[in-house]
Structure formats: structure tokens, C-alpha cells
Specification:
two-stranded antiparallel ribbon, 2 strands, 2% strand
């Protein structure tokens, strides 16, 4: 009886662990600060959307930095080192764009593309994670069901064996009584 209760408790704990694992956020989502996972609702805190004026100011900053790099031993790597998280999209823009010919619209488009990329990445991870976790939960459920069926079959087998031995014993006793009479 105690062993049966222990198995039931273990099965309940495994089920609770599977449900907790399904509901936990994935580890490879793009996150930041205490706000957590980047979504459409909070992406402005991570990568602010550029308007024409702010894009023009940022482009001027890039062009000034280019002039500094052209006249000194400093490199773009020195400029890129302090860029973290939501500013890393600027590296790709600088590396792939002729800054002298770039416009504020180009910078705004790169900003929008970076925002979309982060959101798409998180959405893809979410879809993969939910599917993988649901699959894992299904496999664990099937394993548990399989174990239950095996245990039931073993119990039924033992029951049939005991009934066969009992009937054999009864038959032997009846035969002994007949032979004594």
C-alpha cells in the first residue's frame, strides 16, 4: 500500500514538473533588463524607433566617427566595443553602408529591420519551444501510460498464475480424494 502511494506521488510530481517546464520561458529568447522578454509592447525600451530627426542625428554621429577614424589610428572596433543589446544593429548598418551616401531613411529602415528581426527571432523560439515542450510532455505521458499498461499486464499475469496454481491444487486434492475412496 505504501509503495502504491509512493508511486502515485512520484507520478504526480513528474506531471507537475512537466507542466512547469512547458510554462517556463525559453532560455534563448532575446531579453533585456528587468522587463524580460522583448515583445511588440516593450521593444521601444530595447530598440527605440527612430524618427527622421533622431535618424539624422545618429547618421551625423556615424559620419563624424568615420571622419575621426579616417584621421586617426582609431578603428570602428573601438566604436563598436561599448555597443550593447539594443544598439548592436548599428554595427551591421555601419559595416554594410557607405556612410557618405546614406540617408536618414536608410537608417530608419535598418532600425525597423532590426526591430522586426528581434521580434521574429523571439516568435520563432517561442513556437519551437512550445512545440518541443508539448512533444516532450506527450512522450512522457505515453511513457507513463506504457508503464501503467505493463504493470497492469504483469499484475494480471500474476493473478492468472495464482488462479492456475489454485485450480491445479484443487484438482490434485479432488484426485487424491477419489483415489482414496
Amino acid at each position: 500500500m505504501a509503495q502504491s502511494a509512493r508511486k502515485g506521488r512520484t507520478a504526480f510530481q513528474k506531471t507537475r514538473n512537466v507542466i512547469s517546464a512547458i510554462l517556463a520561458p525559453p532560455k534563448d529568447w532575446k531579453t533585456f533588463g528587468s522587463d524580460g522578454i522583448i515583445t511588440k509592447n516593450n521593444i521601444d525600451s530595447y530598440i527605440p524607433e527612430l524618427d527622421k530627426a533622431s535618424a539624422g542625428e545618429l547618421l551625423k554621429e556615424f559620419q563624424n566617427q568615420q571622419a575621426i577614424i579616417n584621421d586617426s589610428p582609431q578603428t570602428w572596433d573601438d566604436y563598436f566595443k561599448p555597443l550593447k543589446g539594443g544598439k548592436k544593429w548599428q554595427i551591421k548598418f555601419i559595416q554594410n553602408t557607405d556612410l557618405e551616401k546614406a540617408s536618414a531613411e536608410d537608417l530608419m529602415n535598418a532600425n525597423k529591420a532590426a526591430r522586426k528581426s528581434i521580434l521574429a527571432h523571439n516568435q520563432a523560439i517561442k513556437a519551437q519551444t512550445v512545440a518541443a515542450r508539448a512533444g516532450k510532455a506527450a512522450r512522457q505521458g505515453l511513457a507513463t501510460a506504457g508503464n501503467m499498461i505493463i504493470m497492469m499486464a504483469a499484475a494480471k499475469g500474476i493473478e492468472l498464475l495464482i488462479n492456475w496454481i489454485d485450480s491445479l491444487h484443487t484438482t490434485l486434492e479432488e484426485q487424491r480424494e477419489i483415489s482414496q475412496n
